[in-house]
Every structure is written in structure tokens, then in C-alpha cells.
Amino acid sequence: MSSPSPTIAAAIRDGAARLAAAGIEEPRREARLLLAHLLGGTLADLLRDPGAPVPDPAAYQALLDRRARHEPLAYLTGHREFWSLDFAVSPATLIPRPDSETLVEAALAASAAPSRVLDLGTGTGCLLLAVLHERPSAFGVGVDISPAAAALAASNARRLGLAGRSAFLVADWTAPLAGRFDLVLANPPYIETATIPGLMPEVAAWEPARALDGGADGLDAYRRILADLPERLAPGGVAVLELGMTQAESVAALARTHGLAAGFLTDLAGIRRTLVLRSTSG
What is the reported pLDDT for 281? Predict the structure, then answer.
């Protein structure tokens, strides 16, 4: 005779204990989010009837086991909020971070009415689609070397009603592009190769290495992007790039060698997280 299914309250309690033992931060919150995802509801739905039985406890345990192995929560639920928009995510892409909203803020402040927007290394499309959401007259192109990432970004554009104002290409940075853009966005890989194994396991073991690894000094992608950026910016155009915590001066110096003037925007922690670039010619 099989044992009865645990109640929602008991499942959350036991799940939180399981995640806490695995070293997961906020284990009760994550146990609740996983159960809400499994049941197709919200956290509020769980609170309405905590004594109800869990219909598929084995499936819940499977999710807990995966999270206990530090598989990111967003990969388990398949979604992450960014700029108050809901984005589908997958292991083909980095998970959108709140820090990257600083880049969107900088882009909106620096380019009030862009006509053409380019997003290099688009991933989920979160940067480009957040900007298009705020700039209804703009058209955007997202580029990613990963076909799975480009397909996911296109899917997110459709879900958000932005497919008619966006296109997504599989390419190596700016290689196939010939046009110019009023606004260029990029959150390139910028982590030094040797430091990646020491990152938190959710990142080091699960997120795509190609989207993390910036080479020996973390600057390889910036070199590629900045070398072509003067040819991609329209007159009066602006580029906004995300930076690693200690890279502001190094990337700004690279930008200046390509005739670009650099400014910075700090995140909530006071870190110069975003580089704003404009051409100094023409």
C-alpha cells in the first residue's frame, strides 16, 4: 500500500530542509517556487490551501534533487523576470540578472528615440526586448553565435508581442553585418578563464561556458566588438556595454584606441557596471 501524498505545507517544509542541507540560499522560498511551478500556480495559490495533498510528490522530489545539485532555479522553472517582463530561459543562455537592468537604464537614457537597435550576444533577448518594449518606434536585431539562443530570443519576442519589430541572427558578433545602428547593446562574456571554476556552482557548472569565458584577461570579446563598433554606429549613435567588476578602465582604454569616448554608469552597489560609448569623429 502506497503512503499518502504529503500536504502542500509538509512538502514545502521537507523541501526547504532538503535544499538547506544542500547549501541553497533562501531554501523555503525556492521550495515554494518549485512546488508552485509543478502545480502550475503561484505562491499565493499555495497559501490558499496548505493542507491539500501534492498530486505528484515524486515529480516534486525530482525537482528538489536537481536544485540540490545546484542546477539553477530558472532552468528548472524555465522562466526569469527581467525589466518586469517574463522571459523563457534555457541552458543555451545566461540567466538574466538584475544587474543587467542597469544597462537597459543607461541605454534608454542615452538614446531617447533610436530607430535601429543592435544587441550583440543576445542570449534570451532580454536586453533588446526590454529596450524595444520601452521604445515602440524602434526595430532591433539580436545576434548570437548559438542557434539555440537565437531561437529562444525569437520565441521570447513572439511571446512579448515584439516579433514584428525584431529579427535574430546566428553569427559571430558583427561578422555578417553591414548596416549602422543608433543604439548597440552588449553583455559579452567577460570572466577570466582561470576564475570560472571558482564561481558559484550554479554558474560554473550549469550556465553556458561560451557566454561566460572572456579569455585569459576577460577582454577577448570586448576587443572583437570594439574593433568593429565605429563601423556599426550611425552618426550620433551610442553603444552600451556591460562590464565586469574591475574592467571599467581597461575596456574604456580599448574603446579610446578605436576613437570612442567613454562614460560610465554605476549599479546599486556603486560598481561601474555599464560603459556608454560614442564616436568622437563626425
Answer: 62
Containing structural domain, residue 119: 80-279
Q: Name beta bridge partners: 139.
A: 116
Q: Which of 22, 49, 69 lies at the terminal end of a domain, its last residue?
A: 69
Domain count, the chain: 2
Q: Is residue 75 part of a domain?
A: no
pLDDT at position 125 is 97
Q: Average pLDDT of the chain?
A: 91
In a domain, 145, yes or no: yes
What confidence tens digit (pLDDT) does each residue in 103-159 have? Answer: 999 999 998 899 999 999 999 999 999 999 999 999 999 999 999 999 999 999 999
Segment 210-263, tens digit of pLDDT: 999 999 999 999 999 999 999 999 999 999 999 988 899 999 999 999 999 999
Task: Read off the C-alpha cell for 140.
Answer: 532591433
Q: Are residues 96 and 228 in the same domain?
A: yes
Co-location of 53 and 119 in the same domain: no
Which residues, at least 6 apart from 238, have a Cβ–Cβ distance to it below 8 Å?
107, 110, 111, 182, 183, 184, 276, 277, 278
Find out whether 96 and 86 touch, Cβ atoms under 8 Å.
Answer: no
Q: What share of the chain is helix, strand, coil (3-state, %, to 5)?
A: 45, 20, 35
- Dihedral sign computed on CA atoms, order 265, 223, 93, 155: positive
Residue 173 CB neighbour total at 10 angstroms: 19
Q: Are residues 248 and 222 in the same domain?
A: yes
